[in-house]
Amino acid sequence: MGSIIHEGYQNEILNQKNHLSKPKKLFPSWIKQVLIVLGIILGLLVVFEIGAILYTEVIFPNNTEKQHEQEVSVGFSDISKADSIAMVLFKYEDKRRGHSSIFHDIIRDEYGRCYYNHIQKGIELLKNAAEHGDPQAQFRLACYYGGADYRTLLWKDETMDGKAIDEVRSSYWFLQAAEQGHGTAMNNLAIHYRDGQGVSKDIRKYYEWLVKSAESGNIYGLLNLGDVYRDGLKVQSGTHKEYTGYHYDFDYEGAHKIKEYKTIIDYETLVEPDINKAKYYWGESAKRGSEDAKKRLEAIY
To answer: Chain-centre distance of CA 288, in angstroms?
Structure first.
């Protein structure tokens, strides 16, 4: 009996030792499986990226950046081509922004492998050509400083590279281009004088530059001059005081009669309203493709 008890006791101790000697599982089996799958995916991504690098950088290297450098070099040496080359650079950057940069970097297409600063280089081209007297570059640079979109020329709250608008520089370059006969620059300069953007407000200069723009056959100058003849145009010529009544002021000496005046602004008529002339200029603008001019004419007839 004693030996049986002793053997049972030994077996119990042995079972306890075996239980203690078994390693505990740190993670459930499903977590291990997930980690294995993730490791395989990560490995495939690394292999894919290495393959993409070999394919795009060694087998078929990207020459877009080098091509753009060559184009910019041409633009600096021939200022007449600066504007068109700058437009190519701006459009290329638009395509880059059309998809996320992460997308381009992953697939490593030509946009993901071109690290050229298209906007900055395009602006540098325009500045160089403008400073050397090219009117189209001067006009485009004025638009840039004024916050205009280079494709639609619609005005925004900042420049295309995210900087603050500079109306003074914009007006300056519009003037440089306008003095060389650039029709749209004449029109835009006129608007700056009308609204006092970057220059002192001057209605006479507004009208003078608008007439010059229209005479050059510019679609916008013709449209806006038509608006002037529709509404007429007046310019401030001075002020005068006009008696409006009186009131009494009282002090220790008694009542004093005080006359009251108000300031009246005097205007000089520069352009009398003339709907026939308005229709003429709108018609000329419409012939050149202005949809706004067509709408004005449709509203009359």
So the answer is: 27
Q: What is the pTM of this model?
A: 0.70
CA 228, CA 207: separation in Å to the nearest integer? 9
Collect all residues with Cβ–Cβ distance below 8 Å to 195 and sequence separation of at least 6: 201
CB 193 within 8 A of CB 205: yes
- Work out the average pLDDT over 143-158: 83
Contact 113, 62 (CB under 8 A): yes
Taking the CA atoms of residue 164, residue 167, residue 168 and residue 174 in that order, the dihedral angle to the nearest 10 degrees is 130
DSSP letter at 247?
A: E
Reduced DSSP (H G I as helix, E B as strand, rest coil) percent helix, strand, coil of the chain, to 5: 65, 15, 25
pLDDT tens across 270-281, in order? 999 999 999 999
Q: For residue 78, count other CB atoms closer than 10 A to its CB.
A: 12
- SS3 letters across 280-298: HHHHHHHHCCCHHHHHHHH
Q: Which one-letter amino acid corresponds to residue 61?
A: P
Separation of CA 250 from chain center: 62
| pLDDT tens digits, one per residue of 69-107 | 888 888 888 999 999 999 988 888 777 665 544 444 443
DSSP 41-77: HHHHHHHHHHHHHIIIIIIS---HHHHHHHHHHHHHH
